[in-house]
Amino acid sequence: MGSKVQGWCSSWITTMASPLLISTSYISTLCAGIRSFGSFSRHLPWTRTLKVMEHPARLTVGRIRTLSSNIEFSESAESDTKFVDSSKYEHLIITRQHGVRTITFNRPDKKNALNEKMFDEVVLALQDAASDPHTIITATTGAGDVYCAGNDKANFYHITLTEIRDLLIRHMAAFIDFPKPLIAVVNGAAVGVATTLLPLFDGVFATEKAFFFTPFSALNITAEGCSSYTFPRLMGPGKAAEILMFNKKYIVSCIWQVTAREALKLGLVTEVIPDANFPEDVWPKIYDMAKLPLNSLVYSKALMRNIHKDILHQVNIEECKRVAERLIAAYQPGREDYQEFVDNNW
Protein backbone atom coordinates (compact mmCIF):
# COMPACT_ATOMS: atom_id res chain seq x y z
CA MET A 1 0.00 0.00 0.00
CA GLY A 2 3.13 2.16 0.16
CA SER A 3 3.18 5.86 0.95
CA LYS A 4 -0.59 6.20 0.93
CA VAL A 5 -1.01 3.80 3.84
CA GLN A 6 1.99 5.26 5.64
CA GLY A 7 0.45 8.73 5.40
CA TRP A 8 -2.93 7.42 6.54
CA CYS A 9 -1.26 5.64 9.49
CA SER A 10 0.79 8.64 10.55
CA SER A 11 -2.23 10.95 10.36
CA TRP A 12 -4.48 8.54 12.27
CA ILE A 13 -1.99 7.82 15.09
CA THR A 14 -1.12 11.53 15.45
CA THR A 15 -4.82 12.44 15.56
CA MET A 16 -5.64 9.77 18.12
CA ALA A 17 -2.53 10.47 20.17
CA SER A 18 -3.08 14.20 20.48
CA PRO A 19 -5.85 14.20 23.10
CA LEU A 20 -3.94 11.57 25.05
CA LEU A 21 -0.77 13.72 25.05
CA ILE A 22 1.21 10.71 23.82
CA SER A 23 4.84 11.59 23.27
CA THR A 24 6.72 10.97 20.04
CA SER A 25 8.78 8.29 21.74
CA TYR A 26 5.60 6.58 22.94
CA ILE A 27 4.18 6.54 19.42
CA SER A 28 7.42 4.96 18.25
CA THR A 29 7.04 2.35 20.96
CA LEU A 30 3.51 1.65 19.81
CA CYS A 31 4.70 1.24 16.23
CA ALA A 32 7.19 -1.32 17.42
CA GLY A 33 4.29 -3.40 18.76
CA ILE A 34 3.30 -4.62 22.15
CA ARG A 35 5.06 -7.91 22.73
CA SER A 36 4.15 -8.82 26.28
CA PHE A 37 1.72 -11.65 26.82
CA GLY A 38 -0.42 -12.43 29.87
CA SER A 39 -3.27 -14.63 30.97
CA PHE A 40 -6.36 -14.12 28.81
CA SER A 41 -9.10 -16.45 29.87
CA ARG A 42 -9.66 -15.09 33.36
CA HIS A 43 -10.48 -11.65 31.94
CA LEU A 44 -13.27 -12.83 29.64
CA PRO A 45 -16.58 -11.25 30.72
CA TRP A 46 -18.60 -14.45 30.37
CA THR A 47 -16.40 -16.37 32.85
CA ARG A 48 -17.97 -14.51 35.75
CA THR A 49 -21.49 -13.56 36.74
CA LEU A 50 -22.47 -10.48 34.78
CA LYS A 51 -24.16 -7.70 36.68
CA VAL A 52 -27.73 -7.52 35.44
CA MET A 53 -28.97 -4.07 34.54
CA GLU A 54 -31.84 -2.68 32.52
CA HIS A 55 -31.10 -2.97 28.81
CA PRO A 56 -31.29 0.64 27.52
CA ALA A 57 -31.08 -0.52 23.90
CA ARG A 58 -34.32 -2.47 23.93
CA LEU A 59 -36.42 0.68 24.18
CA THR A 60 -35.26 1.44 20.64
CA VAL A 61 -33.92 -1.78 19.20
CA GLY A 62 -36.80 -3.84 20.60
CA ARG A 63 -38.75 -2.71 17.56
CA ILE A 64 -36.41 -4.82 15.42
CA ARG A 65 -37.21 -7.92 17.46
CA THR A 66 -40.94 -7.32 17.02
CA LEU A 67 -40.51 -6.83 13.29
CA SER A 68 -38.60 -10.09 12.96
CA SER A 69 -41.59 -12.06 14.22
CA ASN A 70 -44.59 -10.03 13.05
CA ILE A 71 -43.78 -8.44 9.69
CA GLU A 72 -45.23 -9.89 6.50
CA PHE A 73 -42.02 -10.37 4.55
CA SER A 74 -41.98 -10.22 0.79
CA GLU A 75 -40.78 -13.52 -0.68
CA SER A 76 -39.04 -11.86 -3.59
CA ALA A 77 -37.22 -8.68 -4.47
CA GLU A 78 -39.01 -5.79 -6.14
CA SER A 79 -38.22 -4.42 -9.58
CA ASP A 80 -34.73 -3.41 -10.67
CA THR A 81 -35.52 0.30 -10.22
CA LYS A 82 -33.02 1.86 -7.84
CA PHE A 83 -34.60 3.40 -4.77
CA VAL A 84 -32.79 6.17 -2.87
CA ASP A 85 -34.02 7.90 0.28
CA SER A 86 -31.46 9.46 2.58
CA SER A 87 -33.68 12.30 3.82
CA LYS A 88 -33.66 10.95 7.40
CA TYR A 89 -29.91 10.80 7.60
CA GLU A 90 -27.11 13.32 7.75
CA HIS A 91 -24.19 10.90 7.51
CA LEU A 92 -25.61 7.86 5.69
CA ILE A 93 -26.62 7.21 2.10
CA ILE A 94 -29.44 4.66 1.78
CA THR A 95 -30.16 2.91 -1.52
CA ARG A 96 -32.14 -0.17 -2.51
CA GLN A 97 -31.88 -2.17 -5.73
CA HIS A 98 -32.58 -5.79 -6.67
CA GLY A 99 -33.78 -6.41 -3.11
CA VAL A 100 -30.51 -5.17 -1.59
CA ARG A 101 -30.61 -2.19 0.75
CA THR A 102 -27.20 -0.55 1.06
CA ILE A 103 -26.23 1.60 4.03
CA THR A 104 -23.21 3.69 3.06
CA PHE A 105 -21.20 5.43 5.79
CA ASN A 106 -20.82 8.90 4.35
CA ARG A 107 -18.21 11.00 6.11
CA PRO A 108 -15.33 10.51 3.65
CA ASP A 109 -13.54 13.63 4.92
CA LYS A 110 -13.37 11.90 8.33
CA LYS A 111 -12.65 8.45 6.88
CA ASN A 112 -16.26 7.52 7.68
CA ALA A 113 -15.61 7.64 11.43
CA LEU A 114 -18.77 7.33 13.51
CA ASN A 115 -19.81 10.46 15.36
CA GLU A 116 -22.51 10.62 18.05
CA LYS A 117 -25.36 11.25 15.60
CA MET A 118 -24.15 8.57 13.22
CA PHE A 119 -24.30 5.86 15.91
CA ASP A 120 -28.07 6.37 16.24
CA GLU A 121 -28.55 6.92 12.48
CA VAL A 122 -27.22 3.39 11.91
CA VAL A 123 -29.77 2.05 14.42
CA LEU A 124 -32.56 3.84 12.54
CA ALA A 125 -31.28 2.60 9.18
CA LEU A 126 -31.33 -1.00 10.42
CA GLN A 127 -34.87 -0.53 11.75
CA ASP A 128 -35.97 0.77 8.35
CA ALA A 129 -34.30 -2.18 6.61
CA ALA A 130 -36.00 -4.65 8.96
CA SER A 131 -39.44 -3.15 8.37
CA ASP A 132 -39.20 -2.83 4.57
CA PRO A 133 -40.82 -5.88 2.94
CA HIS A 134 -38.84 -5.27 -0.26
CA THR A 135 -35.45 -5.44 1.46
CA ILE A 136 -34.08 -8.98 1.34
CA ILE A 137 -30.38 -8.34 2.01
CA THR A 138 -28.90 -5.37 3.87
CA ALA A 139 -25.31 -4.34 3.12
CA THR A 140 -23.00 -1.81 4.71
CA THR A 141 -20.08 -0.10 2.97
CA GLY A 142 -18.10 3.13 3.07
CA ALA A 143 -17.98 6.19 0.86
CA GLY A 144 -14.63 6.68 -0.84
CA ASP A 145 -11.77 4.24 -0.27
CA VAL A 146 -12.26 3.61 3.48
CA TYR A 147 -14.89 1.35 5.02
CA CYS A 148 -15.09 2.94 8.47
CA ALA A 149 -12.47 4.47 10.77
CA GLY A 150 -14.33 3.50 13.93
CA ASN A 151 -15.21 5.95 16.66
CA ASP A 152 -14.56 9.64 15.94
CA LYS A 153 -12.15 10.94 18.59
CA ALA A 154 -14.21 14.15 18.87
CA ASN A 155 -17.21 12.26 20.29
CA PHE A 156 -18.72 12.41 23.74
CA TYR A 157 -17.52 15.77 25.03
CA HIS A 158 -21.04 17.06 25.62
CA ILE A 159 -22.99 14.07 26.92
CA THR A 160 -22.83 12.20 30.21
CA LEU A 161 -21.03 8.92 30.76
CA THR A 162 -24.38 7.17 31.13
CA GLU A 163 -25.52 8.62 27.81
CA ILE A 164 -22.28 7.44 26.18
CA ARG A 165 -22.81 3.92 27.54
CA ASP A 166 -26.43 3.78 26.39
CA LEU A 167 -25.63 5.18 22.92
CA LEU A 168 -23.00 2.51 22.38
CA ILE A 169 -25.26 -0.25 23.71
CA ARG A 170 -28.06 0.77 21.34
CA HIS A 171 -25.72 0.75 18.36
CA MET A 172 -24.22 -2.70 19.00
CA ALA A 173 -27.59 -4.19 19.99
CA ALA A 174 -29.07 -3.20 16.64
CA PHE A 175 -26.63 -5.58 14.95
CA ILE A 176 -27.29 -8.36 17.46
CA ASP A 177 -31.05 -8.17 16.89
CA PHE A 178 -31.17 -7.49 13.14
CA PRO A 179 -33.38 -10.28 11.74
CA LYS A 180 -32.44 -10.26 8.04
CA PRO A 181 -29.18 -11.21 6.29
CA LEU A 182 -26.53 -8.56 6.87
CA ILE A 183 -23.47 -8.26 4.62
CA ALA A 184 -20.38 -6.08 5.08
CA VAL A 185 -18.77 -4.80 1.90
CA VAL A 186 -15.36 -3.76 3.21
CA ASN A 187 -13.94 -1.47 0.57
CA GLY A 188 -10.95 -0.23 2.59
CA ALA A 189 -9.64 0.20 6.11
CA ALA A 190 -11.86 -1.04 8.95
CA VAL A 191 -10.83 0.39 12.32
CA GLY A 192 -12.00 -0.44 15.83
CA VAL A 193 -15.72 -1.16 15.98
CA ALA A 194 -15.81 -1.51 12.19
CA THR A 195 -13.72 -4.66 12.69
CA THR A 196 -15.11 -5.94 15.98
CA LEU A 197 -18.72 -5.97 14.73
CA LEU A 198 -17.94 -8.18 11.73
CA PRO A 199 -18.74 -11.54 13.43
CA LEU A 200 -22.32 -10.26 13.87
CA PHE A 201 -22.66 -10.03 10.08
CA ASP A 202 -23.79 -12.96 7.93
CA GLY A 203 -21.17 -12.39 5.26
CA VAL A 204 -18.10 -10.16 4.84
CA PHE A 205 -16.68 -9.40 1.39
CA ALA A 206 -13.39 -7.49 1.45
CA THR A 207 -11.21 -5.97 -1.20
CA GLU A 208 -7.68 -7.40 -1.11
CA LYS A 209 -6.43 -3.93 -0.12
CA ALA A 210 -8.63 -3.77 2.98
CA PHE A 211 -7.03 -4.02 6.39
CA PHE A 212 -8.36 -4.38 9.91
CA PHE A 213 -6.98 -2.23 12.67
CA THR A 214 -7.69 -2.71 16.42
CA PRO A 215 -5.24 -0.70 18.58
CA PHE A 216 -7.45 -0.70 21.69
CA SER A 217 -4.83 -1.40 24.36
CA ALA A 218 -2.34 0.98 22.76
CA LEU A 219 -4.90 3.77 23.13
CA ASN A 220 -5.83 2.77 26.70
CA ILE A 221 -9.36 1.73 25.71
CA THR A 222 -11.06 -1.66 25.36
CA ALA A 223 -12.72 -3.71 22.65
CA GLU A 224 -16.43 -3.59 21.88
CA GLY A 225 -18.95 -4.95 19.36
CA CYS A 226 -19.28 -8.20 21.38
CA SER A 227 -15.77 -9.10 20.21
CA SER A 228 -14.71 -10.27 23.68
CA TYR A 229 -17.21 -13.10 23.10
CA THR A 230 -17.23 -13.57 19.32
CA PHE A 231 -13.49 -13.37 18.59
CA PRO A 232 -12.41 -16.20 20.93
CA ARG A 233 -15.23 -18.37 19.59
CA LEU A 234 -14.29 -17.56 16.01
CA MET A 235 -10.50 -17.80 16.10
CA GLY A 236 -9.56 -19.14 19.53
CA PRO A 237 -8.50 -17.19 22.64
CA GLY A 238 -4.85 -16.88 21.63
CA LYS A 239 -5.50 -15.23 18.27
CA ALA A 240 -8.27 -13.11 19.82
CA ALA A 241 -5.83 -11.87 22.46
CA GLU A 242 -3.26 -10.98 19.78
CA ILE A 243 -5.81 -8.81 17.99
CA LEU A 244 -7.88 -7.34 20.83
CA MET A 245 -5.27 -7.05 23.57
CA PHE A 246 -1.78 -7.09 22.07
CA ASN A 247 -2.27 -5.20 18.80
CA LYS A 248 -1.33 -8.01 16.40
CA LYS A 249 1.37 -6.53 14.23
CA TYR A 250 2.02 -6.91 10.52
CA ILE A 251 4.82 -4.58 9.55
CA VAL A 252 3.30 -2.55 6.74
CA SER A 253 4.22 1.13 6.93
CA CYS A 254 4.34 1.04 10.75
CA ILE A 255 0.70 0.17 11.28
CA TRP A 256 -0.95 -2.54 13.34
CA GLN A 257 -3.17 -4.31 10.93
CA VAL A 258 -4.65 -7.60 9.92
CA THR A 259 -4.58 -7.93 6.15
CA ALA A 260 -7.61 -9.09 4.20
CA ARG A 261 -5.98 -12.47 3.53
CA GLU A 262 -5.16 -12.95 7.20
CA ALA A 263 -8.71 -11.91 8.14
CA LEU A 264 -9.98 -14.60 5.76
CA LYS A 265 -7.89 -17.22 7.58
CA LEU A 266 -9.18 -16.00 10.95
CA GLY A 267 -12.81 -16.22 9.84
CA LEU A 268 -13.48 -12.47 9.98
CA VAL A 269 -13.90 -12.30 6.20
CA THR A 270 -15.98 -14.58 3.96
CA GLU A 271 -14.25 -13.79 0.69
CA VAL A 272 -11.41 -11.59 -0.53
CA ILE A 273 -11.89 -10.01 -3.97
CA PRO A 274 -9.18 -8.35 -6.13
CA ASP A 275 -9.35 -4.59 -5.76
CA ALA A 276 -9.45 -3.89 -9.49
CA ASN A 277 -12.67 -5.91 -9.84
CA PHE A 278 -14.18 -5.28 -6.44
CA PRO A 279 -17.41 -3.37 -7.24
CA GLU A 280 -18.05 -5.36 -10.41
CA ASP A 281 -17.66 -8.69 -8.62
CA VAL A 282 -19.11 -8.09 -5.17
CA TRP A 283 -22.49 -6.55 -5.93
CA PRO A 284 -23.71 -9.25 -8.39
CA LYS A 285 -22.91 -11.83 -5.68
CA ILE A 286 -25.10 -9.95 -3.21
CA TYR A 287 -27.89 -9.40 -5.75
CA ASP A 288 -27.92 -13.17 -6.32
CA MET A 289 -28.35 -13.70 -2.57
CA ALA A 290 -31.37 -11.39 -2.65
CA LYS A 291 -33.12 -13.76 -5.09
CA LEU A 292 -33.55 -16.27 -2.25
CA PRO A 293 -36.87 -16.39 -0.34
CA LEU A 294 -36.67 -14.02 2.63
CA ASN A 295 -38.66 -16.07 5.12
CA SER A 296 -36.25 -18.97 4.75
CA LEU A 297 -33.28 -16.65 5.23
CA VAL A 298 -34.80 -15.01 8.31
CA TYR A 299 -35.75 -18.31 9.96
CA SER A 300 -32.34 -19.86 9.29
CA LYS A 301 -30.58 -16.81 10.74
CA ALA A 302 -32.80 -16.96 13.82
CA LEU A 303 -31.94 -20.63 14.35
CA MET A 304 -28.22 -19.80 14.28
CA ARG A 305 -28.36 -16.50 16.19
CA ASN A 306 -31.11 -16.71 18.79
CA ILE A 307 -29.32 -19.23 21.00
CA HIS A 308 -26.53 -16.66 21.51
CA LYS A 309 -28.63 -13.49 21.81
CA ASP A 310 -28.95 -13.27 25.58
CA ILE A 311 -25.24 -13.64 26.19
CA LEU A 312 -24.43 -11.25 23.32
CA HIS A 313 -26.62 -8.59 24.93
CA GLN A 314 -25.03 -9.17 28.33
CA VAL A 315 -21.51 -9.01 26.88
CA ASN A 316 -22.47 -5.86 24.96
CA ILE A 317 -23.62 -4.15 28.16
CA GLU A 318 -20.42 -5.04 30.00
CA GLU A 319 -18.22 -3.97 27.09
CA CYS A 320 -20.00 -0.64 26.60
CA LYS A 321 -19.82 0.18 30.30
CA ARG A 322 -16.07 -0.36 30.23
CA VAL A 323 -15.59 1.41 26.88
CA ALA A 324 -17.41 4.49 28.23
CA GLU A 325 -15.21 4.47 31.35
CA ARG A 326 -11.99 4.04 29.30
CA LEU A 327 -12.90 6.74 26.77
CA ILE A 328 -13.34 9.29 29.52
CA ALA A 329 -10.28 8.14 31.45
CA ALA A 330 -8.19 8.40 28.27
CA TYR A 331 -9.62 11.49 26.61
CA GLN A 332 -11.28 13.55 29.34
CA PRO A 333 -9.54 12.87 32.66
CA GLY A 334 -10.98 14.70 35.64
CA ARG A 335 -14.62 14.67 34.51
CA GLU A 336 -16.94 15.32 37.44
CA ASP A 337 -19.29 12.44 36.63
CA TYR A 338 -16.49 9.86 36.28
CA GLN A 339 -16.38 8.49 39.83
CA GLU A 340 -20.17 8.43 40.11
CA PHE A 341 -20.36 6.38 36.90
CA VAL A 342 -17.76 3.92 38.19
CA ASP A 343 -19.56 3.58 41.52
CA ASN A 344 -22.90 2.95 39.82
CA ASN A 345 -21.64 0.41 37.30
CA TRP A 346 -19.25 -1.83 39.26
The major pleated sheet works out as: 7 strands, mixed
The helical percent reads 40-55%
Low-confidence spans = 2-6, 9-61, 65-77, 250-254
Separation of the first and last Cα atoms:
44 Å
Number of DSSP strand runs:
11
Q: What gross morphology would you assign?
A: globular
Number of helices: 12
Q: How much β-strand is present in the residues?
A: 5-15%
Secondary-structure element sequence?
A: HHHEEEHEEHEEHEEHHEHEHHH
Let me know the average pLDDT: 82
Strand order of the largest sheet: 1-2-3-4-6-8-11
Radius of gyration: 19 Å
What class do helices, strands and sheet pairing give? alpha/beta
Notes on the protein architecture:
With 346 residues, the chain is an alpha/beta fold. The protein has twelve helices and eleven strands. The chain has helices at residues 2-17, 24-31, 58-70, 116-131, 161-177, 193-196, 227-235, 237-244, 260-266, 278-289, 294-331, 338-345; strands at residues 83-84, 92-97, 100-105, 137-142, 146-148, 182-186, 189-191, 203-207, 211-213, 258-259, 271-273. The strands form two sheets. The protein has a seven-stranded mixed beta sheet with strand order 1-2-3-4-6-8-11, sandwiched between helices. It has a four-stranded mixed beta sheet with strand order 5-7-9-10. Helix 3 runs parallel beside helix 5 (161-177). It is globular, with a radius of gyration of 19 Å. 45% of the residues are buried. Residues 2-6, 9-61, 65-77 and 250-254 have low confidence and may be disordered.
